[in-house]
Design brief:
homodimer, Arc Repressor Mutant, subunit A, Tetracycline Repressor, domain 2, 10 helices, 76% helix, DNA-binding
Chain lengths: 191, 191
DNA sequence: GTCTATAGACCGATAGAC
DNA sequence: GTCTATCGGTCTATAGAC
């Protein structure tokens, strides 16, 4: 949701800095000073672009929604539905080091946002995860599976779960092994 | 790690209060005042039992380790390994409302502790998750599976993953559906 | 051992100069 | 539009009376 005009560059820099910093440190432990420093912007100036810290977090969630668009477009270049699903498991393996170091960006943020009182932010986190589930469901449905939704939830759950385990146990090998296991599983559904 | 003597009751009350409060609000958002109030203990008195807040969090992780012992003992009452694994999936369904409301106690805490700088606490969170994986591995091995470790990681990942999805999307039905799917999967491994 | 009061540090947000 | 200086509030941790 980048606005046009001069301020856009600085605003984008703030969102990018917030995204990285929050991914690595969590929302609660990340201060506006951290973000401003990473974006090379004076602290007080942040409030010209965002009324509150939460509004900046909302912009980060927006940027994750945009990232989902890029990733799904990349996966959709595979010609078959099972090829697209398998490309998704290869994606885990490619990113395994970062996922092991800091977890899933959307998953860990969703988990943290849940701990807040009311929050209008958690439903927004849900939207991003739902996009991923919906995309998977489409692929399973194209494979002719009537239980496509259930399988889609299982796939994304396997992803989020194994990333949490790899992250906590600091073992990227868990992601590789599970990705290959899920890839074989997709293969059995495709015939 | 309960010590004997008079102070034990108050200490236990503090750990129990910390466990609940941290589960619902997260570590970072939970203040010592919150915990002390929930335990009905004056704030400053907390420091008689715990030198720092982190030491209290460590005691909570210890209490999760103890809970694991109770749960695995309960599951081990089933006569067959596949029966024990299936009992575990029934456990998800029984607790689905709480899991949907606040996530997995150990999973969400592990995820949050990862975001801290150095932390000697994250390895302790890993210990609890590892106990669960080890227990599952034993059951798969008793079923004669040479890939028992891999299946154990897949099982715990499915659990942690679907709880994260159910929590973020506020949909306990996801847990029920996935638990039944995993239960059928265990059935196919048992023959 | 128990509790109160407060020190000391930090953070989100604002006021206002330029 | 940009930046500095700072206020008000909150939190962990400690000092010290009882």
């Amino acid at each position: 949701m980048t606005r046009p005009g001069k301020g856009a560059a600085k605003r984008d820099r703030l969102v990018a800095a917030a995204r990285t910093t929050i991914y690595q440190q969590g929302v609660e432990k990340t201060t506006l000073a951290d973000i401003a420093a990473a974006a090379d912007v004076p602290v007080g100036n942040v409030y010209y672009y965002f009324k509150t810290k939460d509004e900046l977090v909302a912009a980060v969630l927006d940027s994750y929604r945009a990232s989902y668009g890029l990733i799904s477009a990349e996966l959709d270049r595979e010609p078959t539905p099972d090829g697209r699903l398998k490309a998704f498991t290869r994606f885990w393996i490619e990113r395994r080091e970062q996922l092991t170091a800091h977890g899933c960006p959307v998953g860990s943020l969703s988990s943290e946002l849940d701990k807040r009182d009311d929050d209008e932010l958690r439903p927004q986190a849900g939207t991003v995860l739902r996009l991923l589930i919906d995309w998977s469901e489409e692929q399973f449905r194209a494979l002719g599976r009537p239980d496509a939704r259930e399988l889609a939830v299982a796939l994304i759950a396997a992803y989020e779960g194994v990333v949490l385990l790899a992250n906590t146990l600091r073992d990227p090998g868990l992601i590789t092994t599970e990705a290959r296991r899920v890839e074989r599983w997709i293969g059995t559904l495709a015939r």
